[in-house]
Structures are given as structure tokens and as C-alpha cells.
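quick q for whoever's on today - can somebody do inverse folding on this one?? i tried earlier but teh output was garbage lol. C-alpha cells:
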């Protein structure tokens, strides 16, 4: 459904573990680090863990791959810049009307695009590990980030796991709207008050769009939220604008559903071109990358 001819709405995820498990991982990695600009590459070696460095690389590639796919601009001339608040935006080609956003947590890097410029995505791993705190203790420690209604909803869930799932659900939604607006980090997260409809079951396989948000008590009805699961351990939220152009699948069919589909490392590089050639065909960069410690999932 994301493949309607002129619609730019897509939902993709790429698994870090699936990439590491590939026999051709080194070959793809060495091409990938040379297929982004020097500026885009700079931050990648700074990460301590291998997974975070790869997630950063995948985020860069997802933005470039989608920009090339949607605009037809040659890979090498695409350029991203950042707003004052640090949100990446497509500078070349200029004057595009679609929006792109990426997120990383756990095993996945998630990507969402929209036919309008404002879109935000967040993915969360549903961790049971809470630094030896009960769900209530954990929620209390994060209480400043939640509205009174959100706290009531979290605390009223019948089990520890359900309390934490509700916590991650709200966190995901807040990240998604902050990324869509380009605010990034907000001092008073509790001024965002999400209202979820418990009649819509929130579980793997669901596609929930009934959630609304108030900011300082006022309904923000210019947004639509999609709440889904990538798999049983990862939830995701997309925030997009309600007002969409005629060619958008969601304008044609407001009940349309686009679930996250898994893409491969290889497919990310299908139209990639060497943009920043490195000495020794990036063999030394790969060696440094493999010397980083791995996280334990």
C-alpha cells in the first residue's frame, strides 16, 4: 500500500542482528561507509558500541536511500542539513514536500515518510529490565515526563508488564510528536497529554489511530498517530499531519494501514554510489568498527 505511484508514505525497519549475520556484511559495510558524505560519517566512529555505530550508519543510509527513491535526484548530489534544533532536512533537492524521519532502539532502525513535510517516528524495545525497580517505582521516577491522566492510566494497569507497556507506549508517542514538530527535546514533557482509547487493543498486529493529544489542555487535532508493533518486543509510533495532498494513500483512503516492512542491508545500497572514497577501500574503518564491543541484547 505504501507503493502507490505518487504516494511517499512508507514504513520500513532494518534489523541490526540480521545485518551482522550476513556472510557479505564486511563488503556491504565497506561500501556503505563510503556511500555517505564525510560529514555524515564523522559521528559513526565516536560510538562506543558496534550496534550504535551501525544504527547511525543505517539512519544516514535510510534518509539518503529514500530521498533518492522519492525525488530521482542522483545519489551523490543529495544533501542533508540540520535545523537549529538538530533535525535533519533535505537541502538538495530543494523544495521537496515530503517528510522523512528515522529512529533507533533495540534491534531496529525504523523509518517513516509522509506526503507532507512533518512526520516523526519512534521505536521502543519493550524491556522488562528496570534497574531492579518495580513498574510503579520506575513510573514514579519518570513522573515529571507524564501528565496526571497518563500517570493514572499507567498505574491502573493490572500487571507489571502492562504498566511498563503503557509507559513505553506514551514515551513512543511523545518522541514521535517531538520529532514531527522538530522540537527535539522539550523541557516539560508533561504538557503533552496523550489520550488512548482502551477499546482499541494495543498489541502485536494492531494498527491504532484513535489516540489524541492535548498540549497545555488544548486538543492538537492537526496530528494523526499510528501505533503499531515491529515485532512482539518492539513497539512503534508515527506522528503525521492530518492534512495530506490528493496523491496520498491516506487521503484516498483514511482507513488505509501501512505496517512496518523489513528491508535488508543490501536493498539499502541498491542505488548507492561511492560519495566519500576512503583509503584501502575502508578496510581499516571496518577493522576499527569490529574492534568495538558488542551490546548484549
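ok took a stab at it. sequence:
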Amino acid at each position: 500500500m505504501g507503493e502507490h505511484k505518487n504516494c511517499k508514505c512508507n514504513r520500513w525497519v532494518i534489523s541490526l542482528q540480521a545485518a551482522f549475520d550476513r556472510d557479505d556484511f564486511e563488503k556491504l559495510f565497506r561500501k556503505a561507509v563510503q556511500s555517505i558524505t564525510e560529514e555524515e560519517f564523522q559521528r559513526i566512529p565516536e560510538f562506543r558500541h558496534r550496534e550504535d555505530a551501525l544504527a547511525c550508519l543505517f539512519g544516514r543510509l535510510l534518509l539518503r536511500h529514500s530521498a533518492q527513491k522519492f525525488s530521482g535526484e542522483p545519489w551523490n548530489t543529495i544533501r542533508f542539513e540540520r535545523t537549529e534544533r538538530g533535525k535533519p532536512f533535505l537541502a538538495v533537492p530543494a523544495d521537496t514536500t515530503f517528510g522523512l524521519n528515522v529512529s533507533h532502539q533495540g534491534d531496529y532502525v525504523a523509518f517513516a515518510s509522509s506526503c507532507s513535510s512533518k512526520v516523526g517516528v519512534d521505536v521502543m524495545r519493550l524491556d522488562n529490565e528496570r534497574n531492579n525497580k518495580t513498574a510503579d517505582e520506575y513510573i514514579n521516577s519518570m513522573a515529571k515526563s507524564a501528565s496526571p491522566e497518563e500517570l493514572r492510566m499507567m498505574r491502573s494497569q493490572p500487571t507489571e508488564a502492562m504498566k511498563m507497556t503503557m509507559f513505553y507506549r506514551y514515551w513512543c508517542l511523545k518522541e514521535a510528536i517531538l520529532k514531527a514538530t522538530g522540537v527535539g527535546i522539550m523541557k516539560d514533557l508533561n504538557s503533552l497529554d496523550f489520550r488512548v482509547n482502551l477499546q482499541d487493543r494495543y498489541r502485536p498486529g494492531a494498527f491504532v489511530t484513535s489516540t489524541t493529544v492535548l498540549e497545555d489542555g488544548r486538543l492538537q487535532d492537526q496530528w494523526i498517530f499510528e501505533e503499531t508493533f515491529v515485532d512482539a518486543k518492539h513497539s512503534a509510533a508515527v506522528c503525521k499531519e492530518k492534512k495530506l495532498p490528493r496523491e496520498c494513500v491516506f487521503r484516498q483512503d483514511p482507513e488505509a494501514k501501512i505496517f512496518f516492512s523489513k528491508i535488508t542491508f543490501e536493498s539499502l545500497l541498491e542505488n548507492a554510489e561511492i560519495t566519500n572514497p576512503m583509503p584501502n577501500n575502508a578496510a581499516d574503518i571496518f577493522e576499527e568498527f569490529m574492534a568495538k564491543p558488542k551490546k548484549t541484547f
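fwiw The mean pLDDT is 94. also The longest helix spans residues 50-71. so keep that in mind when u check it
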